[in-house]
User: Fold these one by one.
Assistant:
Number 1:
Amino acid sequence: MTVPPELSLSMFRSVFLLILFATVVAAGEKIEFFATKLDSNLTGVHAGGDVVVLYGDYYLSAKEAIFDRNTSTLELFGNIVAMKGADYFAMGDYAKLDAKNKTQLFSPFFMLDRSTEVWMSSLEGDAKKKDFSIKDGMVSGCDPNDPLWVLYFSEADYNSDTRWMDLYNARLNIYGIPVFYFPYFGYSLDNRRRSGLLVPTFGISSTEGIYVEQPVYIAVENNWDLELRPQMRTNRGEGLYGTLRFVDSNDSKGALRMGYFQEKPSYAEQFDLANEKHYGFDLDYADYAVLQRWTGWELPGQSGLYADVSWMNDIDYINLSSNDDVNFATSNQVLSRVNLFYNEEDVYYGMNFRYYLDLNKKSNADTLQNIPTARYHRYMDTYFGEHLYYTFNTVVNNLYREQGKNAVEGIVDLPLTLQTSLLDDLLLLSYGARFSGRYITFSGEAPPSNVISKGEYRTGLFGRIYHVLDAGTQVTRGFDGFVHTVGFDAVYTKAGVDDASGYYEDKKEICSRPDAGSNFECDFYTINEIEESLDMKFSQFFVDGKGEQILYHRITQRLSFDRLNERLSELENELDWRITPRISLYSDLFYNYDRRTLSKTLNSLRYGDGAFNAGVTDLYESQVTEDGIAYVNYLTFDADYRYSRRYRYFGRYAYDLEAGVKKMAEIGFSYSKRCWKFGMRYVENNRPILTKNEASSVFDRYVYFTVEFKPIGGTEVNYKLTNALDGS
């Protein structure tokens, strides 16, 4: 049907006349009215029908609105919706807004925060400027028609600017059943940094008793914050851990973690612990323009300082830092590193500090440290049309320990490489001459020695030159749907001339043996013998049309011409294969010709389709030792199944097949809805400890329960059963 133009214009005028408009100014703010019925005079404005009011950053709608010009008050009646920006809106049957005093009153009161979907309801609520005050109400993040959980309160304060909620005399009800009472409860409706209490953690252990941890978060300034985590284990002791995070410039930031735990004497005696006090610290720091900041110089290059420093008196400093030690790596070897460097286009200067901490030892006074190492590196340069390549490296090591012999070692390395290609770049040839030299001098007292050299350490000099010839080729061909690349490389190494004196000459015989690692006189002997050999490598790639790798395959083999070594070293075969878009296989195998067996294998098979992901990995290794052949066989399995948007199931398992010991096991599930999340998991974990006599381990079994009420937070409760194991 076609409407005549004159009729369409008549209909438009009729609709336009139904929407009436009025504007008033109160307390310096403009209030706009839109309604189907509107009466405006000297005393006020009366709007009826479908009313819309624009007031500051409020958008209000109601059945009726009355504005009094004398008192600057606005009253709304019937089906009120008050929206403030995009953050929240309030609903009620009656509202009163005082433009002069900046106050609002809603009755009954219902407010919804859109970003978090948290709602609040009461018989009445009032606000002044940014602050809301609500009496005898309830708050929840669940469906208002059938909420799983509700917090009832006698009084609440909410600041719409800071978005912080304070509840007083709060009672938590789950399905209408009271479960907890809070004299005070405060939480945030956004993720801005602010001081306050974090989510507590509770647990119970058959040996440690009741566990309680209540973190405290302190955020006074924008450039730092502090998290304190006091904890109590009723049968074991008390402790305090803390983390200070800071940003000290536009180019640097760091974090300092410290902790202390005091054991009860009865617990330390029961488990024969080496220490009743456990303490330590961890420092992470990065500065991406350290020299420019410290010196104020306009340096053209790049400088940096990176620190990863850890120290602790024993491994329980890590074990006690959390009640969930499954998620912490409990290695007995701790390495601290500090790296300082300056990098230009042609050269690199660096200084590295390395500090090793063996937590199996009661003292590390005899542990050799490398503090510091100074480096100079000249980047590769070319001559003769990019046929001759050279670089230059210098390293100075300060090898130090509190008890025992110390040394300062200097190393110089100068590799020269002559390179060309033949057969239209199909064959690449190169010859390399590698020059190197060392100097070492000693200080300190060495422990007694019963070897022929009587433990003497003479200043040493060492020089070497050897040769490397490399020939390689690589061919690529495209097929329908994929590209295949095949490469072959052969590297021939020829020992040249070695010249040694002092320490390097005295210790060569004993430090070149396979068991030299157990001899303290070889602590500073890091020279590897150059054997005449041929290293051959075959590799191939399959890449699909999207550029994604389908298969990578590599085979390497060393052929030795040295009469003291086996003719054929171990054959390595590596395979990385994406069998299907969901199934992948990784395998790395080493075959020993002398023993006619696989000496090491690493196999991993994984499946993943988004909903279900699983993998199994097996590590097997056999090594020849003085006591015979030592075997390692370690199996791990993990799976994760997301049944639906709400349900998730997961599990992990690790087993030492050779020792017949379960290392770790975990199985659990989680259920998540709009307003709450619940999870449960059972965990078994074998963790190391330090006893008075030796390193040992403890086998823990946990049951974890996690409850989270979105978005106000939650907690984790666990039960732990501990068994002591034999030392290892």
Note: Residues 439 and 707 are 63 Å apart (CA to CA).
Number 2:
Amino acid sequence: MKENILGTEKVQKLLIKFSLPAIISMLVNSLYNIVDQLFIGNGVGYLGNGATTIIFPITMVCSAIACMIGDGAASYLSLKLGENKKDEASNGVFSAFISSLFISILIFILVFCFLDKIIVVFGCTPDIRPYALSYGRLITVGLPFTIISTVLNSIIRADGSPKYSMISMISGAVINCILDPIFIFGLKLGVVGAALATVIAQVISFTINILYLRKFKSIDFGFKKCNYNFKKTLKIAMLGISSLITQLSIVAIMAVENNTLGALGAASKFGPNIPMIALGIVMKISQILNSIIIGLAAGSQPIIGFNYGAGKYDRVKSTFKYVLGFSVVISTLALVLFQTIPEVLISAFGKGDALYIEFACMAFRTYLLLTILNGVQIPSSIFFQAIGKSKKSAILSLSRQVLILIPAMIIFGKVFGINGVLYAGPFADLIAFIISIILLVFEFKHLNKNSEDVNTSVIKKKSKYKGKHVVITIGREYGSGGRFIGELVASGLNINFYDKNLIEELSYETGYSKEYIEKNEQSSIDEHSNGFTTNSDELFIKESELIRNIAKNESCVIVGRCANAVLKDNKDVVNVFIYNSDEGKVDRAVKYYGLNKKTALKEIKKINRQRAKHYKTYTDMNWNDFNNYDLCINSDVLGVIDSAKLIIDFVSKKDK
């Protein structure tokens, strides 16, 4: 078996290979957000920059919706291709595209009609209002293009063309940079010119991505070949829901920040406009440096994830230490720049009066006082995501931004006035850093206890079965005895039995440790997980491939794991479902599984509910629908031994 380079190549080399494209993509995104302000500040003034600060949350909401659809569609595409369900993959991508089309048009209508009211929500002041309306109305025209383009970017990457997606993004950024000075300085169009340059750039990226619809590598895409399916659209949206939440949290912060700064600024010598505009620019400058850290950490994600799954914990620790080292160097450089030359940094965005410069320098030196700690907090969040601990990752992602920063802004603002908002920045950075360190210490203790590589060997019995090729899949209710019945059938027919030993096979094929697979194999069935985790999807795809290979090469019995759906196109498969009464389940669970009799039924129903949810997630069918099986047996009626005999007899007659 060819070894995966993620587990063998030098960590430094892998980081360069995987992180560099991610860093470039993050920088391009940051450039899109900041280039208008560079030219507007010099061509219009800081009130013009206030317009971009007010309109930016609107574009972020659109980006959040686009990422939800795009990332969800990308996950759906990868999942269905892994299941060898090309038609479903095509219809899913088509449904996502059509949905993005209708949603983008609806958003355009709503924003265009209610723009004057929306900008008030995001803290627009009377002085900034005319600039915000002029800039915002034209930006609104480009929203459908950017939404659809963002959706397609994710799908194109999932189709195996990340370079094409990158070219689309870079092309738009370059066009924007070229047109901004022409429209703002040459044609004297001011903020309207900046908006026009942005919209044209979005149309260019949109056009490049639309042209890809004829070039899909993995699916057949087209109005004649695909059907729109609303249920698939909802499922795709759920797959991308985390992207929506993450982006909307940023919008919430900006809304609170702008309104708080406007209100407190009005009561200070700086007035309502300067604090909001200056801090908006400061945050975008810091985001450029943060994007490098995010890109670096995101590039490390597949390296850390693979080696964690393979039990190569030394490589996990080594990779993360390199990421931390580089991140701290970058954040230290950022801190030095923010503390020593804030005047130079802010002057790049145009001239302002003495109060504007004073507040901007205060913002750099106070709000970003502990920016060095971002070199730990940001990589830590992505690290926990890479090893499949999504709850810890979510805590770190949301802690600084939502759980700490917003309350701190409001409370400190009331106590210390406008300066209190600036104090909230380092306070949130410090608390988030402390949380990160605590979680990392516990995690690294766990890694140190499990630092030995996992070597797994698979022992298979040689089948003595002489009949026609047959694969028996067994779906079963918990407590029905279905697994034991499957063992009896396999023994009676002298064929191999696959249940827990499938985990050993999967470990051997993928390099993941057995412990990791057992923990993550069906993590999507957690009732609090919204039906999706990246790790369980990846494992399901690989497990399905393994099941198909086993079914192709030998007769066997396979218990659970949606095997009947995975092998639904195979003609030599017998699908069996074992069920029984609640009383029978409880008796068996208490006797053989050690469950407490008082709570057994509740636990059994929970497990069966989870199995049904897992089955529905990956097959779009109902687990206990008897139409999905060839033979359904109530094990209470026949008992496990006679149930096994019935299956063997059924297979024998089918064989004839």
Note: Residues 287 and 363 are 14 Å apart (CA to CA).
Number 3:
Amino acid sequence: MKRVFFVMAFVAVAFSAMAQIEVRWGSADVRYPVDCATNVSDRAQNSVTAWRGERVNLQLVVENGAEENTVEYSFSDLECGNSVIPASNVVGGFVQPVLTDRFTGCGRHEVDAYGEVPVADRITATNPAILDADSRRGLWLTVQVPQDVKPGTYKGYVELACDGKKTKHKYTVKVLGHTLPAPKDWAFHLDLWQNPYAVARVHNVELWSKEHFDVLRPYMLKLASGGQKAITATLIDRPWDGQTYDPFGSMVTWVRKADGTWWYDFTIFDRWVEFMMSCGIDKEITCFSMIPWKLSFRYYDQATHSHKYIECAPGDEAYAQFWGGMLSAFAAHLKEKGWFEKTFISMDERSLQQMQAAIKVIKDYAPGMKISMAGNYHPEIEADIYDYCLDIFAYGAYTPELVAKRREQGKVSTYYTCCSAEYPNLFTFSAPADAEFIALEALAKDLDGYLRWAYNSWTVTPEEDSRFTAWPAGDTYVIYPFCLSSIRWERLVQGIQQFEKYRILLAEAKAKGNTSRVKALGKLLKTIDVAKIAADSGKMVNGFRNGLNAM
């Protein structure tokens, strides 16, 4: 992927001739190649600007010489007079490589069909870290600015220790007077689908055991810290026909009793929803799917003590009967739990005819139940879709009038990217700034947010190889096992924060009748142009962020 970067002179700091370690400030826009022999053009940056409550990113570059070395890092407090941002608000680690490929579009293929290239993405917590001979690593820093800190310029440093030598690398965070709300109060509608089944496999714990929920919690707290709004729940087994390495099972047990009547056990569904709400994710419960990719529905047959399948399609009488009883029971259960208003029957990339038939069943058996869909735009059913997410190639159907009407009705209008879009996207080979651009594109199109199908649908060994057999590398996850972050995740959240900042500044300007500020913000927003992202997304998003911070 072609990218153009600005070049800035820098001063490298060496530990000693023996250690052969060189350190300099680099750019959060660069995935630094592991091999020191690979030249890199970047913008050295050791100063960032933030609102109170905002998270900001920096990156040190550490280059090792001819011998293996062990490097340890620590973060200092950031001080501005008597005011302090504590060191505990600075997190990060060395960025380790994973295998990636190149943009391939959609379609199954051999894992190595499109190449094998190491790319920096996984932000590890290993400290001290061993650096191979003739290798380069980025050291990523994310600074969480407290909401109640005093505005001013805060100074701190990163200390590196190697071979008994220590060096300090100074940086500053300029804190402005504006305050960003807590993530739970962000307006941006983030919907990254969660896969609890992958977590059970990687951590080798029993599905839905106490140990499973214990290991799930840090992942979902991290997701909540990005402003996630939706809980991904499954009503049937394999709603996507096992497209992921760890297939999704059903959180509802369907039982056909010996007398031919049906019984539905919502125990796992309830435990999952209650757990996710305890992590701070509670706006929507999106339930997949009445129209799975394979129209075969699994249930337990009490008469034969075995699992069986019903094959039926939307529009069939058997389909209406099969789903009708369950929807009636589900609606009653949701009302008893107090969840009916925030629960959605959700469909993914289904045809108009299938959707119309399924919507009729929902209206007949669970009147008032909300519906969500990700896929193409169908004007015939738009009024029935409360949360409508269009593919990036189809979101042109969102006219300003349509979005305004839906917003007045309390409906959600978002967009998504998947394997079909080279950029902006969240592949492991995507430019870091592309992730930040994603939220800005929603802002530029006056949409409510963004959806992506995979928060953590991991590959076999996701910490080593992000390639999969159907889509470009990294398509299936943005977070790593053991709750390790990624450059993609950190920059995605950074973009969401800019979305919130713009919204706040615009509302303030309008409330004060500051027409010049409103015009300036409109002019700034016009710099976000998806047609120009291939040239340099870093220049675009940094320019936008700097423009916001200057207001």
Note: The chain has two domains: 13-178, 188-251+262-295+315-486.
